[in-house]
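Predict both folds.
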Amino acid sequence: MDHALVRNFCIVAHIDHGKSTLADRILEVCGAITDREAVDQVLDSMDLERERGITIKASAVHLQYQADDGQTYHLNLIDTPGHVDFSYEVSRSLKACEGALLLVDASQGVEAQTVANAYLAIDSDLDIIPVVNKIDIKNVERSFALGQLHEMFGFSEEEVLHASARTGEGVHEILEAVVARVRPPEGSAEAPLRALIFDSEYNSYRGVIAYVRVMDGRIRKGDTVRMMATGRQFEVDEVGVLAPAMTPTEELVAGAVGYLCAGIKDARECRVGDTITSARHPAAEPLPGYREPKAMVFAGLYPTESAEFASLKDALDKLALNDAALHYEAETSGALGFGFRCGFLGLLHMEIVQERLEREYDMDLVATAPSVVYRVYLKNGQRVEVENPAHYPDEGSIERAEEPYIRATIMCPEEAVGPCMQLSQARRAVFKDMVHTAGGRVTLTYSIPLAEILLEYYDQLKSVSRGYASLDYEFDGYKPAKLAKVNLMINYESVDALAFLTHREFAEVRARTIVDRLKQLLPRQLFEIRIQAAIGGRVIAAGRISQLRKNVIAKCYGGDITRKRKLLEKQKAGKKRMKQVGSVDVPQEAFMSLLKI
C-alpha cells in the first residue's frame, strides 16, 4: 500500500448534527455497502445507539475511493460520538487520525460540543475541514453557521464545504477535500513495529479483538507480538480491516487502521492506549498513550441475587474492554450485599453502562443514586476522598470539606439568557463570563458544583431554552463546601445505599422530598413502616406508612364485647411481633427517586 494514497480522518460535531448520516452517505459513495445492506446508522452497531439515535462508540471503517485525479485512495474513517459524556471516545479517535471533518448543523450553528471537539482536534494537530450540513432544510440561512465558523475558529468562507447528509448532496466534494487537504500518514513500514490500541472488544470464540492504528512497521498473521505495558507475548491469528465487516488481509502496514486477533483470553492483557510491538525486533519506546479519563459521577451497581456477583464482575471486565472510561471496584452494602462502586463520565454514561450490562450480559441490577467525589480534611491532618456517602467520616473528626466544580459553557439564543442564568444561579453557580457571538447566540460561562448538575440540570436547561441551549463542561478543581450527610432509616434501621451528601443549605428540603417520595414508592406491609431522615442524631424529616389491617372482628356479630377485645389484642400482639422480625424490600425506583428531586 502506497503511503501517499492513505488518508485517516474522523467526523466530529455536536450531538444530532448528522455525523452518522454523513458516514452512511460516504460508505454508499465509496461502494462499501450495497442498496440491500443499506440501513440508517450503519456504523452504529448497538441496538441502544439505534433506539436513542445517538453514537455511543467510535466506529472505524476502511474505504476505497476513486478520486477525480484517477487514483484509488485508501480512506480510514472513524465516526465519533457527539454527547459530552463520550468526549473521551472522541479524544482517542483523534489519536488515530491526521484529519477531521468538523460538522455544523446549518439551522443550529456552532454549539457547545462543536467548540469542545474542534479544540480537541486542534490540540491533536489535525487538518480540519469545516462542513455545513443539512443545507436541504428550507429557509435556512447558511450565513448564520458560516459567520460563527469564521468568528470562533477563523475559517474563511472558501474553506467551508456545504452538504446534505440526508440527500447526499456535497458528499463527493467532501471526499475530494479529504484527499486534497488531509496529509498522508507518517511513519516507516521498515521501522520496528509500533501499533496503538485505540479500542477493543471481547468475542466469546476469538477472545479479545484489538482495534489498532499501525504507526511504524507491519503486522502479519503468524507474527509474535508483545504488549509493551504488560510484557505478555501472543501469536497473531488474523489481521484485517473493517470494510465495514471484518475483512482479513495479508498484513497491516504503517499508516493502516484495522483489527488484530491473537487468542488473548484475559481482558486485562489488552489495554486501550497500549503499544503493540514485535517480540523479535521490539521498538525502543512505546507510543504516548491516552490521558486517563477522570470519572465524574459514582454509583453502586449490585446484582439482585448475591450469587450473581461473579457474573457481574466478569461482565464488567468485558465491558471495560469496550469502554475504557469505565472504572469499578468491589464494595459491600448492608442493604444490598456485594456489588461494585463504578465511576462514570456523566449521567448518560452511567445510564448506558447499566443498560448494556442488562441487555448484553443478561444482568438484573440495582443501581444506587449517583454521587460525586468529595475531599474531606480530617483534624488529624489526613485527607480522604469520599465516593460513597456511607463512608463519610463523623462530623466531629472533620476540619473542612471540598466538593468538585465544573466549568460549564452554555450556548443559547439571546432570548433564553435570563432563564438560563436564573436556573444556573439557583444551582449555586458562580458567573464567570458572557460573550455575544454571530447569529444572536450567547455563550455563558459558569463554575458550578458537579453535584448540582446531577439533579436534572441538563433537562431543565433544555426546557427553559425550548431546546435551543447546549452544554459542555470540564473539570474545574475543588472548592470549600458546607456538606451534610443525610442518613435514611426505615423502621429505625439505616439504609446505607440511600444515604446522600448534600449542601447543608438544601439538606432539610431534600430530606423531606425523599421521605415523601419513599412513602409513595414503598409498598404497604402488614406492619407500620417508619421512614426517617437524620443528620447525625437529629431527625430532620419523618413519615409513616400505615399498616394493612385484616378485619378480625368481622365474624363477631352480637355477643360480648370481650370477644372482640380479645381478637383485637391478639392481632395487636401479632403486629408487634411481625414488626420485630419483618423486613422491607426497597425497590429500584426508590434509589432512582433521588435523581428526580
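Second protein follows, with its predicted C-alpha cells after the sequence.
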Amino acid sequence: MGKKRKIGEFHIRDNREYSLSASLKRIIFGIVLVVAISFLVSTYIIVQKESIDYTRSEADSVLKTLSSNIYSEINNYTEISRLIMTEDRLVRFLRADAAEVDIGMINDARYGIMYILNVKEGVDSVMIFREDMIMVATNRFTYNYDYDLMNSDSWRGDIYSGKGKAVVSLNSNGIAAKADGRPVVTIGRAVYDIDSQKRTGIMMMNISTRVFDWELSKLGYNDICIMGSDGTFLAGNRKYSDYFDETFLTRTTSYKDVSGDEGRFLLSGCKVSDMPIVILKVSSYGREGIPFRFIYVLLALLFVSVVLALFVGFFIRKNITSPVFELSEAMEKNRQSGNLQKIDVDVPYSEFEMLKGDYNNMIDHVNELITTLIEKEKILQKSEMRVLQEQIKPHFLYNSLETIGFLAMDAGADKVHDALEILGRFYRNFLSKGGREIPLSREIMIVQDYLSLQKLRYGDIINDEYDIAEDTKDCIVPKLILQPLVENSIYHGIRLKGESGTIRISSRMEEGRLHIVVRDTGVGMDEQQINKFIVSGDEASEGLESESFGLWGTIERVRIYTGKKDVVRIRSEIGEYTEVEFVL
C-alpha cells in the first residue's frame, strides 16, 4: 500500500501501484500476453487452413485420377461396342428382313457378340434391338424386362439423339434390371448400316459395377463411394452413400465438412465428365500438410519477442523509471530538510541531467525571489511606518488652520477666515483617508477648492466652468489627476497670456470608457511641446521636471494606473487654447 506525505495543506499519494514503472510492467506483460495469444491463434489458424488445404488438394487429386481412370475405362468399353457393331453375323442379323430372322440367325449373332467380348472382362450383357424390336442379348435370363416400357419410345430418345455416339446411362435406360438387384452402367448407341447409313437398331452394353471395384482395389482406396447421378450405389464403401446429394453433380470438385461416428471429416465429390457417375471421397483431417518448419520459425520468433520485451522492460526500469524515482526522492529530501538546496544525483543520460539542471536552476531562481521578497517586505514595512508618521502631520495642520481661522474671525478678518476654511477643506479632501482612488465627484470638489484659493490671489482673471455627466460622478479615478492639470493651465497658460481666461472641465462616457477633458484659453502649445508629453519614458521627462512637471507626472501616473500608454490626448492651438483629455 502507498503512504501519504503532507506538503502544506495538501496530501500527495505516493503509490507505486500507479507509477510509470508499474504501468510499464503491465504494458510489457500485456504485450507478451498478446504476442503469445496471437501466436497460438495464428498457429491454430495456419494448422487448420493448411490441414484443410492439404486434405482438399489430396482429395481433389484422387478424385481427378479416379475420374480419369473411369472415363478411360468407359471409353475402352465404348470402343468394344464399336467393334461389336461391325461383327459380320450381327450385321447380317440387323440387315435381314423380319421373315428371314430365325433362331439360328439370332444365335449366330449372339455367338459373334460373345466372341468379341472374350477380349474384355466386365461386360455383364449386350442387348441388340432391331428396329422391329427383335432382340439379341447375352445373359438374357439374368435380367427382368419391362416390356411395356420397351415397346414405348421414351427410353430410346436420348440414344437416338446421340446419332451413333455412345450415350452412358444407368440400368439399361430402365427397360431391364438385374435379377439380383445389382446396378449396371449402360453404354447405348444407335446402330447404322455401314453401307446405306440407315439406322438398323439400338445396342445397349451393360458394364458390371465390379469394374469400379477393380479400379478401387488397384488404387487401394477404401474411403471412396461411386454413385449414380440418381443416387444409386454403384461401388466402393456403401456407408458413405448416405452423404450423397445434388451438390456433387458437377464436374468440378465440391467439398463438405461432415461429422459422423468417426468424427469430423471432409467429404469431396465430383461427376465423371458428362457421365451419370459420381465419385465421393471421405478424408480425415490429419497432420499431413502441416508446415512444421514454419511453426518452428514462429516459435523462435515468439521466444525472441518475449526476450526482447523483457529486455526492454528491464532497460526502461533501470535507465528511466529508477533515475526518476531517485530524482524524486532527492527532491523530497530537499523539501523535508526545509532548505531549498541543489540536488546532486548521478543520472545515466543527458535528458535527466537537463531535468536535474532545470530543477537546480529553479531552486536558485526561487531563492533569488525569496531574497527579493524579503527585501521588498522590509521596504514595505518601512513605508508603512513612514505613512503612520505622516498621518500625524495632517491632524496638526487641520488644528493649526482652525486655530488661525478663529483668531482671524475674532479680529474681523472675514476673508482670511474664508481662505483658511477653504484651504482646510482642500487638504481634508486631498489628504483624508489616505486613499489612492476616489470618485470623480470628490476629485471635482478638490479642483473647485483649489480654484477658489487661486481666485483669492488672481481675482477675476480666472473663470471656471463644469460639464460633468451624471453617469460619471461615481466613477473611480486616481486621486489628484485634475488639480495638476488645472495648476498647469493657470501657471503655463492663462497667466502667461496676460488676460482673463477660462478653465473648463467636462466628462462623458463613451463605449464603457470615461473621458475627462480639461480645457483652458491660455497661450497654447506647439507640436514639439505636445510630443514631449505624449512620449513616455525617462528621455521624454528631460526638461519637463521643472517646466510643467505636474502635467507630465500626472500623465505618467495615469499610464501606470491603467497599464496602458495611449491614455492621453492633447490638442492645442498657439494663442487660443490647450485641451488635455484622459481616457480611462
